[in-house]
Amino acid sequence: MTGILNLIRFETPFSPQMNNNTTFKMRRRALDIKQTELLKHASSTLGSGNLREAVKLPQCEDLNEWIAVNIVDFFNQTCMLYGTISEKCTAVTCPKMTAGPKYEYYWSDGRKTIHCSAPEYVDYLMTWVQEQLDDESSFPSQIGKPFPANFITVAQTIMKRLFRIYAHIYREHFDYIEQLKAIEHLNTSFKHFVLFVSEFKLIDPKQLAPLQDLINKLVGSS
Q: Which amino acids does the record list as binding Zn(2+) (predicted)?
């Protein structure tokens, strides 16, 4: 982790492309007018460079709408980031979904737990998230349609699982990210993610342990 902490710095602009072998795609969710406005607000506040302010719920806006719009954005970001290293993340190079030597993740579909390689895990994860986003009863896309009572619980599970992709990229593929000169892009995305989940308590702090030192460094720099 020391190498990661020492390499938090600005790099050249980066435009990653999804590997052709990747089966999941970035989500193009149909947005209503209100959600489009929220997305524009998020984009404009991110452009200010103040990530702490960017994650805050806009005045007079619905909390669930704000979380939903941002989850779609974080899903797309993690798809893109994983796509940059997917050719290096194979069943041979990553036979387990790990985040360093101490942490290994198993996929669970609610009925059984599956031991699988990192690319298989990510495919299961992204497919599952897409299914949640496509489910109108969980993520309504129409104005006035209520969110379910368990929406925050679903949101927490999504964000907990998306964190694991960041953890895998940092702990297992950081050298390749450095070669691509994509460190700034990854750090900014992850810092935004951490501030957002912290603002709305979407991840149990214990789940962040694989990257806690990095989180302390990134968030402490705000």
A: 89, 94, 168, 173
Task: Show the tokens assigned to 38.
Answer: 């929220």
94 in a labelled binding site: yes
Helix (H, G, I), strand (E, B) or coil at 111: coil
**Domains of the chain, CATH where assigned:** 2-9+30-220 (1.20.140.30)
d(CA 189, CA 183): 10
- Classify residue 142 by its DSSP letter: S
Is 173 annotated in some ligand binding site?
A: yes
Return the half-sphere exposure (C-beta side, CA atoms, 13 A cut-off) of residue 110. 4
Query: Taking residues 162-188, what's their average pLDDT?
Result: 96
Confidence grade of residue 76 (pLDDT, cut at 50, 70, 90) = very high
Q: How confident is the model at residue 36 (pLDDT cuts 50, 70, 90)?
A: low
The CA R_g of the chain, rounded to the nearest whole Å, is 17
